[in-house]
C-alpha cells in the first residue's frame, strides 16, 4: 500500500475489499445497466411532423445556396469607391453576411436532419485492431446501405439535392474573392511580364529618385533602385509599379562574374549588375546581400541567389534565378536600362515560359 512522507497509508482499503497496487476494487461494484430504453421522437410517430422537418432541412439548404449567391453578388456589384470608407464597410458587411448565413444554414440543417429525421437507435460499435474478415467487411458494406436507408439520403431527394447544391454553392464566394486578387480586366501573366522599365530609362535611388552614375558604385556596394519618374506617380500607382520594378544594383569585380553567354554579359556594365528584388518563390523582397560570398538572401523562406553566377538559386525553395535587368550608361555616365526584364518577375507559378 502506498504511504506518505509520515509513513501513513495514503489510501485506506474498504472493508473486505481487494487491494491492487494503490487502487481499491469494491466487492459490490454495480453491473453495467445497459442502454436506456428507446424514446421515439415526434417525427417517428407523426408523418406530418416528419414532413415538416424535411421541409425545414431542405429549406435551409436552399437558403444556404441563396446566401452564397448573395455573397458573390455583393462582392461583384456593391462598389468600393476610392477614399470612401463607408463603401468598404458596406461591401464587407454584405459579403460577410452572405458567407456567414450560407455556412450557418448548412450547419443548422445538418443538425436538424440528424436529430429529427435520421434513425436514432442506440448501438455499440466494438473496435478491433486488425483487418476484419470477409464476412465483417461485407457486413460493413451492408451497414452503409442500412445507414443510407435510415438517413433517407437516397430516398429524400429534396434534402439530398439541397445538401449537394449548398455544398457546391458555398465555395463560390471564395472563388470570387481569389479571382479578385488579380486585375479583373488584364492577364496577370502579361502584367508581371512587363514593368515600368524601358530602354533609356535611368536608374534612380530609392526612395529619393535621384539618378545614379556608374562612378557612384564602388566594388561591393549595393543599392536598391527604382525607375526614373516612379516617385512622381500617384501613391497607389507608384506602389503597384514599385512592387514589380524594384531592382537591386550591385558592383563586383569583373573577373568574379561568370556568364553563360555573351548576351548576358552585355547586360552588365563594368562589373555592375541589376537584378529584380522580387523573390521567385512567393514574391518577398530579397534584401540581404553578403558582400564576401556575393550571395543574396530572401528573409522570408531563406532562398539564396548567387550574384556571381547570374543569380542562380543555390539554396531554398525558389524555383528559378532572379530576372536580370539589362543596363548600360548614357552619354552623361548615368546608368540606364537597355530594355525591360526579358522574363516575368516574381513568383515562379506566374511564369508561363518554363
Automatic annotation (TrEMBL):
The record gives the membrane topology as: Multi-pass membrane protein
Q: Name one GO molecular function term.
A: oxidoreductase activity, acting on paired donors, with incorporation or reduction of molecular oxygen
Identify the residues that the record assigns to the Rieske domain, covering every copy: 270-336
* Keyword Membrane belongs to the record: yes
**Record InterPro entries:** QcrA_N, Rieske_2Fe-2S, Rieske_2Fe-2S_sf, Rieske_Fe-S_prot
Q: Which domain of life is it from?
A: Bacteria
Query: Keyword set for this entry?
Result: 2Fe-2S, Cell membrane, Disulfide bond, Electron transport, Iron, Iron-sulfur, Membrane, Metal-binding, Oxidoreductase, Respiratory chain, Transmembrane, Transmembrane helix, Transport
Q: Where in the cell is it found?
A: Cell membrane
The transmembrane segments are: 56-78, 93-113, 163-182
Fetch the CDD domains from UniProt.
Answer: Rieske (cd03467)
Q: Does the keyword Magnesium apply?
A: no
Q: What is its main location?
A: membrane
Could you tell me what this protein does? Iron-sulfur subunit of the cytochrome bc1 complex, an essential component of the respiratory electron transport chain required for ATP synthesis. The bc1 complex catalyzes the oxidation of menaquinol and the reduction of cytochrome c in the respiratory chain. The bc1 complex operates through a Q-cycle mechanism that couples electron transfer to generation of the proton gradient that drives ATP synthesis.
Database matches in PANTHER family: CYTOCHROME B-C1 COMPLEX SUBUNIT RIESKE, MITOCHONDRIAL
Q: Which family does it belong to?
A: Belongs to the Rieske iron-sulfur protein family.
| Protein name per its UniProtKB record | Cytochrome bc1 complex Rieske iron-sulfur subunit
What species is given as this protein's source? Aurantimicrobium minutum
